[in-house]
Amino acid sequence: MMKGERQQDGLRSNEGRPFMYNGGDRTAGAEMSQSGSVASAAAEFITGAVSQETPPLSRTYFQRAGEQPAFLVLREGQEERPVRREDGGVFRAGPCLVRGEEWLQAPELSGLYESWLFCENDSQAERILQRIGYRLRASTAALLESADGDWAAVTLVYEPQLAQQPAKLAALQDAQLEALFAAVALSQRQGGDSRLDVLAPYPASAAEFAAQREFIEEVAEQTLGHAYAAACRIGALVAPDVSTAAAGEIARIADFLVLDGAAGEAAPEEAAAGFAQAAAEILAAVRRVKPAAVVLAAGAPAASSLADLYRIGLSGIFCSAGQRTEALLRAACLTWMARQDAALGTVSG
């Protein structure tokens, strides 16, 4: 039995930590105040306004038995963020999703990455990779100091150019993981309570995910020691075309799943058209294996398919800043209508 599987019981007992949010989050489906209209409820979600009478939200995204499932609208990407946290002045809107490739595209890293990618001298390539690691550590430290610093989910770098060079891809991911966990360790030594959950990109089978998970755990334990289990959860970023059988088996050993609508080369409208159907099939397979599994969606098709994803019972979506306002409004309306239907059903019953 692999190390990650042996730790599952301990992780389940610590479900107060994953996907944290607090009273300022106002994420759709988590807690809706007793607003007089859909518009005022949606406005609360968008502005982060918190009623004095509203009790603080639970800091977990998992639902206790008997509770109404939440549907969360969370952020993807690093754009349009406050640079640093300001106590009382910045509302942290739940976890954010950061793709590892996003950092590689930054001006201070893109040139180094290109040099490393095409370098044919092994010793020189190793030195360049070291510099990439230092830059990634700085990027992680900046994330931990930002308004999202309490919690973020970061995907392992996945570059199509390296698909046929597994050893080179593994070396890049190893440098990224070491940078991520070194920054978390430093934050913890300075008294912070930061965590970075990691997503293994596009496993096609449970065996593939198990290998990725063990790789992540090994680097985390070397960097953070045994404390890593409290600072990191390991999920899977899966493509919509993953087989339903594989998705179910991956879910057995993953702490959470994210269906990536951005995977593939289809045009956005074509991707959105089939995304909800694929999500429904994957979700059904996952819930047969693990009824309480946390399954979210990401990418532009996820926001476009929000109503369908809400209807099938997905846990929520990550979406870009440009899509977030509309997604929050739609989720607020759906939540409000569901509550009205439930209230009418209770009265008529």
From TrEMBL:
<feature type="compositionally biased region" description="Basic and acidic residues">
    <location>
        <begin position="1"/>
        <end position="15"/>
    </location>
</feature>
<dbReference type="InterPro" id="IPR040442">
    <property type="entry name" value="Pyrv_kinase-like_dom_sf"/>
</dbReference>
<protein>
    <recommendedName>
        <fullName>PEP-utilising enzyme C-terminal domain-containing protein</fullName>
    </recommendedName>
</protein>
<feature type="region of interest" description="Disordered">
    <location>
        <begin position="1"/>
        <end position="34"/>
    </location>
</feature>
<dbReference type="GO" id="GO:0003824">
    <property type="term" value="F:catalytic activity"/>
</dbReference>
<dbReference type="InterPro" id="IPR015813">
    <property type="entry name" value="Pyrv/PenolPyrv_kinase-like_dom"/>
</dbReference>
